Amino acid sequence: MTNRKSNILVVDDTPASLKLLSDLLKAEGYEVRSAINGELAIESAIRNPPELMLLDILMPVMGGFEVCRRLKAHPATCQVPVIFVSALSETDEKVQGFALGAVDFVTKPYQRDELLARVRTHLEIVNLRDHLEELVEERNSELRKSQEMLQASLQDSMLANTHLRTLVQTIPDLIWLKDPDGVYLACNRQFERLYGALEADIIGKTDYDFVTQELADFFRRNDHRAASANKVCANEEWLSFADNGYRGLFETLKSPMLDQNGKLIGVLGIARDISERKLAEAKIQRHMHLYAALSQGNKIIAHCTDEAELFLRICRAAVELGGMKMAWIGLIDAAQAKIRPVASFGKGAEILERLEISLDPDSPFGNSPTSMAIRQESPVWCQDFMNDPFTAPWREEGARAGWAASASLPLRRNGVVTGAFILYADEINAFDDAARDLLIEMSMDINLALDNFSRALAQKQAEAEIERLAFYDPLTNLPNRRLLYDRLKQAIANNARSGNHVAALFIDLDNFKTLNDTRGHTIGDLLLIEVACRLETCLREGDTVARLGGDEFVVILNGLDEDPTHAASQAKTVGNKILSTASQPYQLSGYQHHCSASMGIGLFRHAETTTEEILKCIDTALYQAKRGGRNSLSFYDPAMQATLEIRAALENDLRQALEENQFQLYYQMQVNQIGQILGAEVLIRWLHPQRGLVSPLEFIELAEETGQILPIGKWVIETACAQLKTWENQHRFANLQLAVNVSAPQFHQNDFVEHIRHTLQHYRLNPERLKLELTESLVLDDIEDTITKMQQLREIGVRFSMDDFGTGYSSLYYLTKLPIDQLKIDQSFVQNIGITQNDGVIVQTIIGMANNLGIESLAEGVETEEQRAFLEQHGCNFYQGYLFSRPLPLNQFEERFIAANTEQSAASHVSTGIN
After folding, report:
1. Is 71 helix (H, G, I), strand (E, B) or coil?
2. Mapping DSSP to helix (H, G, I), strand (E, B) and coil, where does residue 906 land?
3. pLDDT digits (tens, 9 = 90+) for 710-759
4. Taking a C-beta distance cutoff of 8 angstroms, is the pair 823, 846 a contact?
5. Which of 16, 74, 262, 291 has its CA 20 to 30 A from that of 401?
6. With contact defined as beta carbons under 8 Å apart, do 438 and 423 qualify?
7. What per-residue confidence (pLDDT) applies to 2?
8. Could you give the angle at the alpha carbon of 266 between the alpha carbons of 265 and 270, nearest 5°?
């Protein structure tokens, strides 16, 4: 293309528009001609065709559409591109213009840049078209020259083609040539056998004329793949010959055929029969896989010490390395005369659970290859699983799993057949002579491993029996004296490190010698065996029971409490359980025997304690128990024994205390900032008939452990309510409130709310005068139950105080959820006011928090005026402590209350001038 100026014809009946458009194009360097009407435009264009025409539509006499139609009909101007430039902008006008052959449409008024861009675009298209026509002409000239050269060499090509065709016909492979559309152009005689037709009948046809659409599609895809890759492409495909029905695996090479200009003119195919080679390769591969499995099996056998692991790994190796579809090992279940699968791996292993393989030849499932292999004690090879008559009951499952052939090899343990090794292949005739030899060798290796396992098991059993005889009593199978000493040493060392106590219990059967003398040692042995079993049922995991000899047994209890009193209580509990269990009747060979036992107990936790010392101590304690009348236990430590006896007596007395009205309520007053007594906290006291006043510290914990806290707690609430009712009838006491401590077991009773409600109703008491004090641990122990019960009681008017606040796991979140009326600041903080700065800060924090939540704060344990002043200064207006009064019996409390009111009344009279 040259850089000459483009020739443009502009047509417009408006001179101003014509000049404007012409000047615009000339300014861009174009050669511009103009015409003022349609006739002049046609004449100018035919005489000298422009490269581009800009044509107005609305012109008199002859409009732009007519001009365009005539120019497109004339051979000299039919190729001239026309751009309509008009004020018309309707879609119909544009469609009409394009239908006449226009290439573009510009609407007036137009944008300069847009118009110039469109002009440039269409001029470039014209130039490209002209250039393309030049190239086409040049190509035609070259083709004519090539045709002349082709004609000259045609004779030589025909001769060479004759030689090539002779060569192709003599090659034993299948050879063919197709054009790009898959139409056959040529083939040799071997290929004629494939389709059962002569070459003349094949040429001009496609694969779809000879084979199924599916196979023809497959051939066609491979043709396209070779053509697209532009290189030789190889693939393997199964071909069936029409002339004799032979079916074989062929390796096919397809190569794109190009002319001298690189254009695809067809696809050449060559196919060679590789069926025998593949069979040989597959056979070798199967043998290599089986050999690899055999080698791996030898390694597995060398390293496995567990029979189950061996079986599973052997099956896995047969599948993953041996190329088998599935493998499993079954052992003989003599009781049911069946083969029980114990290990499996591979495709279809899950169906073994559903398969039944019997050893009974009369059973429908008793003539499988595996059953016959076990009965005949020799391998059975099934080369065609789906057609073998002996596999009929399992054929459906085998088809789903893809089993084509199977091998069943009997397994022996010490020369006796105990099971079978079964393998499945995914092709028929998979077990040739070489494969059979490898599998037989593998089964023999498994037999060798089973023999070794049997010998190792026998050795372990012998060693275990030797150890049992050395460390265990042969009659009861309990640890003997030797093992007992070792366990005692371990218990002392372990518990010494943890700080816990260990207890040793020496147990001796009462009157055992009499049983032996009257019924004989056989009955005596039966009793010892039964006693040993009963002792084991009384112990926890980690404890030990041993037979020391004769009718003597020793029990070791580990991990008892650090506190000696609690540890002794734990040991006593177990000891009583043992004595109770041992005293139950025994059935000894039809003879019922009643027996009891005596027990000595010792507690230890020091590492320097020896086993001899322990046995000596508990033997002494056992002697004391027998002297005490038998069927009892005794602690070696006299002080501990005395403590336990006191505790037991106290527990017994505690059970009678309620019935004998030994409890009494004491009252510790609660006052406000001006000293006015608002009420009291009730505190229980036990007036023991012999011991006198018993501190709550001695019996409250015991009451909780024994469950006595529940009736005691009810008595306290009922007594407090009764007292409030009594005061209600006495004017001076009518407004007093009582605060009652509630224990966790009592509060969490299902009927707690109902008991409070019933008691208030019984005494017809104003609920607001009763205040229940709850600890933080009680509240948070079961927060949902706590909230429910507190809300229920709050609805009837009962008030609540949070006792010992700050000493537990305070939860501000739940504090906002609970209907708390009062926080009691624990006395441990109050007592340190002025001594420990941190406690003072804590007290201020609790008071501030209570005030912000609208809750009263009451400080307990106030003993000095300085403490009270500090509390009042920081906003706490309610107090309880020795500064005001100790806990007092009812009559003393009432006297103190009357005196205090009298003093306040006198002070009030003086201040107001009343005589």
Report:
1. helix
2. helix
3. 999 999 999 999 999 999 988 889 899 999 999 989 999 999 999 999 99
4. yes
5. 291
6. no
7. 45
8. 145
Reply yes or no on whether the pLDDT at 772 is more than 90: yes
Distance in angstroms (rounded) separating the CA atoms of residues 248 and 241: 9
CA distances for 398 relative to 345, 347, 355, 387, angstroms: 15, 10, 10, 11
Question: Whole-angstrom Cα distance, residue 285 to residue 425?
Answer: 13
DSSP helix/strand/coil, 69: helix
Among residues 26, 42, 131, 115, the alpha carbon closest in space to that of 78 is found at 42
Select from 431, 380, 375, 365 the least CA-distant residue to 404: 431
Distances (CA, A) of 622 to 307, 554, 613: 50, 11, 14
User: Out of 290-294, 423-427, 529-533, which region has the weakest mean confidence (pLDDT)?
Assistant: 290-294
Instruction: Give the Cα separation of 811 and 778 in Å (integer).
Output: 12
Tokens standing for residue 64: 């732009």
CA 828 – CA 682 distance, rounded (Å): 20
Residues 119, 21: Cα–Cα separation, whole Å: 12
Beta bridge partners of 518: none
Closest CA to 798 of 837, 770, 825: 770
Mean per-residue pLDDT of the chain: 85
Partner residues linked to 242 by β-bridges:
none
Q: How much is the CA Rg of the chain, to the nearest whole Å?
A: 56
Residue 550 tokens read as: 């004769």
Distance of alpha carbon 537 from alpha carbon 542, whole angstroms: 13
Provide the 8-state DSSP code for 768: G
pLDDT digits (tens, 9 = 90+) for 161-191: 555 566 667 678 899 999 999 999 999 988 9
- Rounded Cα distance between 187 and 175, Å, is 6
The residue whose two tokens read 């509390």 is 871
pLDDT tens readout for residues 622-672: 888 887 777 889 888 666 556 656 777 888 888 898 889 999 999 999 999
Distance CA(815)–CA(813), nearest Å, equals 5
Taking each continuous run of H as one helix and of E as one strand, the counts in the chain are 30, 32
The per-residue pLDDT for range 501-546, each reduced to its tens digit, is 999 999 999 888 888 888 888 999 999 999 999 999 999 888 999 9
Q: Which amino acid is at 501?
A: H
Instruction: Name which of 184, 180, 269, 186 is nearest 227 in CA terms.
Output: 180
